[in-house]
Amino acid sequence: MKRFLKPHWIFWLITLPQLLLITLYFFSYQIIGSLLSEENLQYWYLFGGALATLCLFSTGYSLWQIKRNQPVAAWMGLFLLITYIPYLYFFGWCADDIVPRSVPRWMMFSGDLVLYVFTFLVPALGYGVLLIVLGITPEKKANRPWTDFLMAVTVPAIWYFIFNVFQFLGRNRPSSQIFEHFLAVMLISGTVVFFIFLIRGVYIVFLKNTIVNPYIRLSIKVLIAIVFPLMGLMLNNGVLMNDGFIQYIFGDFSHPLFYILAVVNGILLCIPKPQNLRNQLLLFTARSITFSYIIYFFLVFLPYLPLSIPAIIVFGAGFLMLAPLLVFIVQAQTLSDDLQFLQNYVNNNWLWMLFAVSILSLPVLVIASYHDDRQELHKALDYVYAPDFEENVDIDPTAISQMIRHIRENKANNRFWGSTHQPYLSNFYQWYVLDNQTLSERKLNLLEGIFTGDENAIASSFNDYTLEKRDENVAIDSLYTTSTYHEEEDYWTSWVHFDITNYNDWQNEFRTSFELPIGAWISDYYLVVEDEKKYGILAEKKAAMWVYQQIVNTRRDPGILYYLKGNEVAFRVFPLGGCETRNTGVELIHKEPIVLNMDGKSLSLGYSEMQDTLKSKVELFDNQVVYLSAAAKTDLPKLTRRPMYYFILDCSEGKAENVDMYSSTVHQFLNDNKIAFSDVRLLPTNYRTQVLDYEPNWEQKLQKIDFEGGFFAERAMQSVLWKHYQNPNDFYPVFVLVSTSMNQTIFNGKLADFEFMLPEMPYYVHLQPNNIGDSYEANIHNLWGNPHHQMTGFRVADIGEVTMLAYPDAENPVAYVADNQKASIVVRKEAANTLKSKKWERKNWNNALALHALQRDYILDTDNQDAKWLSLIQRSFQTHIMSPFTSFIVVENEAQEAALREKQRQVLNSKASLDTVEEDMKRMSEPALWLLLLLMGLVVGIRRFF
Question: What's the pTM value of the predicted model, to 2 decimals?
Answer without folding.
Answer: 0.84
